[in-house]
Design brief:
The chain is of the alpha/beta class and 362 residues long. 45% of the residues lie in helices and 12% in strands. It contains twelve helices and nine strands.
Length: 362
């Protein structure tokens, strides 16, 4: 009887375990790997685990995270007197969702600035660091900025609108909710190490997208992100206060600051938080508002296929050209010693120097 029970148990285990193992192998052969890992962070909720190599969820493109937890090359230490170090802040678009490292909009801007500086014989080297973290809201972004000011000698920040404030309440959670977020980060890391889990998550997202009438490929979180249309007055007030604290931080530390208001696919009118960002920056910091520009453009080429929020390689290149022009206009208009003048050494070349965003990384 005991032998029969053991044999049945072994057979049951094999019948479950073998398909899982075969599924894991098949998904890895199909290009899936474990996705990026995160560290639970008592202040920010989560940060990227340093020193990891993985792939993007969309397209399975290579991701390299440096020793400081940024999707970027190693930072120059110590920073030389001729280096201008800017941090690009935001969420998944700024992280580079679905594109290669050198194709991200801020990396293309870095290339343009350095090309121009070299062409003019200037010794200035621009270093724009990718500090976008998937899922971050604006509250997390400004607190991450404070940490960067303390640790990394920045000369400025490029802050992109994040679509996550409509659902991500981190920064306004109870102690119990805060603890659940940290526990969830640990739990999700275990699952994300599995190619099979990531493959099944994509299949589930595809079905959800098809039910929503969105096409053949999609992402559950992207569906939720596009619903940022009804912020309550108290939420908008908190959002504006966060924007004010961001500008106060830059002003106190004498750092340059610029905003990019990202737009959703086919969006025609600004949502409340987008409008609040554009209004807060007006007259105080350069702001690139993409809502009227991307809403009227060819969305099929500017966004990833069947994705309402994440730009394609071409979309990133267009953002880069427009942002470069904004930064250079602000630099030319700035007086000597004003933070915006930090870009002036890289602004002697016209925007076409971007070469369509095809340039290499650093």
């Amino acid at each position: 009887m005991a032998r029969s029970w053991r044999a049945s148990a072994l057979l049951a285990t094999a019948s479950i375990g073998l398909p899982v193992v075969l599924g894991e192998i098949a998904c890895r052969l199909a290009g899936y790997r474990g996705l990026e890992m995160y560290r639970p962070d008592s202040e920010l909720g989560w940060t990227l685990e340093p020193l990891q190599r993985t792939v993007t969820r969309v397209g399975h493109l290579p991701v390299r995270v440096n020793e400081d937890g940024f999707r970027d090359d190693a930072l120059e230490r110590p920073k030389s007197a001729t280096t201008v170090r800017i941090f690009a802040m935001g969420s998944s678009t700024t992280f580079g969702w679905g594109v290669r490292q050198h194709e991200m909009y801020h990396e293309v801007v870095e290339q343009m600035l350095n090309d121009s500086a070299r062409a003019l014989g200037r010794r200035t080297r621009f270093e724009i660091v990718t500090a976008g973290v998937i899922g971050y809201n604006l509250w997390q972004t400004v607190h991450y900025m404070r940490r960067i000011v303390q640790r990394y000698q920045p000369d400025g920040f490029l802050v992109a609108y994040t679509f996550n404030d409509g659902w991500n309440r981190f920064g306004a959670l109870t102690a119990q909710q805060h603890g659940r977020v940290l526990a969830g980060v640990r739990r999700k890391n275990v699952l994300r190490a599995s190619a099979l889990f990531n493959c099944l998550a994509d299949l589930r997202a595809r079905r959800l997208w098809e039910r929503a009438g969105g096409g053949s490929i999609g992402d559950e979180s992207a569906i939720a992100q596009t619903a940022d249309t009804g912020a309550a007055p108290a939420q908008l007030a908190a959002y504006r206060a966060t924007l004010d604290s961001m500008m106060a931080l830059a002003r106190t530390a004498k750092l340059s600051l610029a905003f990019t208001v990202l737009a959703a696919r086919g969006q025609r009118r600004a949502w409340p938080r987008q409008a609040a960002m554009a209004a807060a920056a007006a007259g105080r910091a350069p702001v690139l508002d993409l809502v009227p520009l991307f809403g009227a453009a060819d969305a099929d080429s500017l966004y990833l296929p069947h994705d309402p929020v994440h730009p394609s390689r071409l979309g990133h290149a267009m953002i880069a050209q427009l942002l470069y022009a904004q930064l250079c206009a602000a630099a030319v208009a700035a007086g000597a010693g004003e933070p915006a003048a930090v870009y002036r050494a890289g602004c002697g070349m016209p925007a076409r120097a971007a070469r369509g965003g095809a340039g290499g990384g650093r």
